[in-house]
Amino acid sequence: MKELNVKHRPLWRDEFSIDQATDLYVTRRQFSKFLVLTSLGMFAGNLWILIRNWLSSRPSFQPQPVGTVNDVAVGGVKLFSYPTSEDPCIMIRTAPDRFVAYSQKCTHLSCAVYYAKEENRLECPCHEGYFSVEDGGVLQGPPPRPLPRVVLRRDGSDLIATGIEL
Amino acid sequence: MKPQRGITAIDGAIALIAVLLIIQMWLLTATLEAYLAGHPEPILPAAIISGLIFMACAGLFFLIHRIDADVKTREGRDESSLH
Description:
The complex is a heterodimer of chains A (166) and B (83). Chain A contains 2 helices and 10 strands. With 166 residues, chain A is an alpha+beta fold. Chain A has 2 domains: 2-55; 64-165, Rieske [2Fe-2S] iron-sulphur domain (Rieske Iron-sulfur Protein). Chain B has 83 residues and is mainly α. Chain B is 89% helix and 0% strand. The A-B interface holds A 1, 4-7, 9, 14, 21-22, 24-25, 28-29, 31-33, 35-36, 38-40, 42-43, 45-47, 49-50, 52-53, 107, 144-145, 148, 166 and B 3, 6-7, 10-11, 13-14, 17-18, 20-21, 24-25, 27-28, 31-33, 35, 37-40, 43-44, 46-47, 50-51, 53-54, 57-58, 60-61, 64-65, 68, 71-73, 75-76, 79-80, 83.
């Protein structure tokens, strides 16, 4: 009768029990093990992002001419790409001496935003996300963040993009 | 601990782990979204919180094992007394 003692019972009798109550324990124990391993995976994912962030270098932007003052009338728009040809941007002349430029990709799902002159705002046609022309901030809709702003420098009549502010 | 009470306690612990896991999943997706958008500020706090949640889950897991062991010990005692 000693073999019935828990301490001397083989492992397989615990894991493949014929007793229903014991079997409930086994399934719950294994399910909790699965959940905790998933939690470990999530933690590992967060650590991976942290390490990637530490190892990745900050992007540096090269100054690049994007047009001249005369290219755009007041209230007009010019499209250009910066810093690479894969990054579409939109420049708006809001006043005779004021130019603003933003990434043209909506921060929601990357649809191209356009300038709505009547409402004086940038609009995303996909999900009606609206952005302020003044600072690129979100006015309405699902975009989670403002539009990245392209820093412009005026050099005589030339407009030069010098960086991006996220 | 009686087997039925043990099962109830384990079910409660599993429910708590599941809730913590949902929070951790949300945390991971939000962190990834922020990282890809070029906003690294929440990455470190998110990693710390995720680690704390994992430790809480591991603690609950060991609690489940302890309850399991308690029930087994009791079962063993009962079986021994029967024979």
